[in-house]
Amino acid sequence: MRLRHLAAATLTAVSLSAASVCAPATAQAAPAASDHHRDKPGHYSFAVIGDAPYGDQQIAAFPRWIDQINASDVQLTFHVGDIKNGSTRCDDSYFAMIKGQFDRVRTPLIYTPGDNEWTDCHRTNNGSYEPLERLDAIRSTFFARPGTTLGQHPTRVRSQAYRGVPENVELRRQRVTFATIHVVGSNDDLKPWTGIGKTEPTQEQFADQARRMGAAIAQVKRAYADAARRHDRAVVILLQADMFDPTWNPTWNDMSAFRPLVQTLIDESNRFRGESYLFDGDSHVFNVDHPLAEGSAWLGFYGVRGASSLTRITVDGDKQNTDWLKVTVNRPGAGGVLSWERIPYTQ
What is the pLDDT of residues 115-138, one digit of tens each? Predict the structure, then answer.
């Protein structure tokens, strides 16, 4: 297949040109307002966390981390998936415990699932679960009220429950459209479930992945259409999978499922007159880049057409879970619609 050959040919460039594609930001990175506009601070902010809590020590610290976010002035909180690490059990009791902590968050909390809590649950040390059964458990635990967020003060959101994907939601704040899409690592669950004896992806996997990816693409298109109709300043897409992971050398079989979404992000962000942002977790290391910009090796890797100025932000996770990301919606006239700051956990 041509794309496979193209991917192989560009793999070395992807490994990369982490220098050219992923220009890491500094510890307080933010394409924030310029000096000229510092008299126009943003007055609306939100928190983004992900890949947490990982392991016993972080599980013990997680309530304190929530307390710290609760004590801040953020008005919305996102968790971009992976509520556990990849080598611990996917039990109902664990899901219920995390749900209880999410319900302690003072703001509305929006969670999009990661691969560790369902896709990878076939692993023996995860409990040898059937992953799609665990996906059902995630949905029944965290999305029992479609169209309503989690948190102490839930708010209404537009949900894709009508497509069977209640975790995909959209809302609007401060002339910014936010949309979560359920797209995960492990090639969006096209990796074999080896822990339960599978050597190839099952037909059920293919069907579920096609359904979720179709819903994700529809969600992105609708978010951009809504934002354009309302003359919004920016679109923010949030998901778990790092489709442009600079920390390893992927093969086509590691990332092939993401190609249609990558093309959709290029097409929609290019049509939109405002700014485009993509928040993810998965690779665990804070990073800010423009992976779809002209000259990026990722364009060749995915074999996609066009380029985009979309800004991607990856939040810290796993061993780097020493901070949370505070994102501010700047007032009109600032240097960028969003700016951000990593806030160290104090406990």
Answer: 999 999 999 999 999 999 999 999
